[in-house]
Write a structure and sequence with these properties.
heterodimer, A: mainly alpha, MetI-like fold, 10 helices, 74% helix, elongated, B: alpha/beta, Rossmann fold, CBS domain Like, 2 domains, 6-stranded mixed beta sheet, 4-stranded antiparallel beta sheet, 15 helices, 14 strands
Chain lengths: 243, 311
Amino acid sequence: MRGLWKTPVVWVGLLFVVLLFDMQALRPLFAAWFPAVQPEIFGRARFVDLFLSHLGLVAEASAAATLISVTLAIFVTRPVGRDFRTIANMLATIGQTFPPAAVLALAVPMLGFGTRPTVVALFLYGLLPILENAIAGLEGVPDALLEAGRGMGLSSWQLLRDVELPLAAPVILAGIRVSVTIGIGTATIGSTVGALTFGTPIFDGLAGNKLPYVLQGAVLVALFAIVTDLLFAVLARRLQPPG
Amino acid sequence: MTQLMIEIERVGKAYDGRPIVTDLTLGIPKGALCVLLGPSGCGKSTTLRMINRLVPFDSGTIRVGGEDVLSVPPEALRRRIGYAIQSTGLFPHWRVEDNIATVPRLNGWSAERVRDRVTELLVLLRLDPEIYRRKYPHQLSGGEQQRVGVARALAADPDVLLMDEPFAAVDPITRDALQSELIRVHRATGKTIVFVTHDIEEALRLATVIAIMDRGRLAQIGAPLDIIEHPAGDFVRDFVGVQGIGLKLLSVRRVADRMRPADNSDGAPIAADATLADALAEMVSRRADRLSVADGKGATIGVIALADLVR
């Protein structure tokens, strides 16, 4: 645990937390750069509230995407579901290639403004990386292990729980990591339909020609994504099977 | 009539209309080390895997310990039958002890009983429990992995052990050591072992019974000596190999069968259960025409001369 203090996640995390709670500290800097903008710091909502709302959106969408993708991957790697593999992949690819902005435009009439359409867009956008990795991870388990496991009398469920999922876990986690990191960046567009995210200062700044707000939102969302990615790296090391 | 542990009766199996095993009838006596021998594609591996129902068969009956294998759920059946394969199939994310404990834990043994059993098996396979139980498979050599694989197959004390070319992927020296271990383990445990190989030398060394298969049918079953001396038909004769048949005979007969009683000892003795081929090799390398013979405890019990080999 002591080694944790030497890892970048702690330092980047600290920077993120400091800016989150005390962006005012940078006021002189923004005042010097952009003397025309008043007030210098975005003030329509607290950054902490933006963060919590942003985190909530991404967490909800990613949890749902993980649950659905992993379930789907398990299904299409079983003998019964093998025929559905292509279809599942195709649907996830459509989810990924369909621009989230378009999803928002389509979802707002059905779900109204705010967080709902944003979560849906993020969910659809986040499926593919997890699904692909989960399938690859499950298919990467050597046949000899399944053969040996079956030969010893493990049931299909026991094989999945004790052998396939643990061995596929690092690959699945890598997929979740990509999906979540992308999701954090993408969630900002939710602010165009009224969701509170770090996108809110960005779009406010763009609309009101206040560049400091854009910078403040962008820096925070970037740090949020980096810290999350680094946390996943720590988790991945924990999960790495021996050897 | 010895009691049969495994009875295969008129069993047939085809893949996409192509017969793999045809009308196979085969009885394996309790306590035998039966080698299923034959060229690639002869159906020996399929036959092995039909015994524990990893491969479903189309027709016929298979009984293990007198019980029809189709009358028990496949998982329950397999937990009573040890299974070891060429690539070992050790779970890479589990320590040696957890790998060995797989079936005992499925069977709900207590932690203490599992631990004792793991220790017992590691000792049986000559792996120091203190050193090996906490290791992961990737930290072991190929030979050690196979030993753990065999230990795992024996873990729940099954009556029957199925082994599918378990030593085919290790180097010759390791294979030789593993074969000796298997013979020892077989003697120590009295298990019925069914062992698949395409290697005639391995079959002759290990088997108490050899079943030779040819294109899905049983070509001959018998003691190793029987098969060499009285091959049933051209296929068996060709497969066993006419060339070097004398040497093969030497490799199935034991020193104990040919030695003469004596109590003088000169030079290092040879073990009574060594093969005549081993004895000949010793004589040639030592430039000696006599060897003293020792029993398992190292006491001299006789002597064997070059002339005894050809008697």
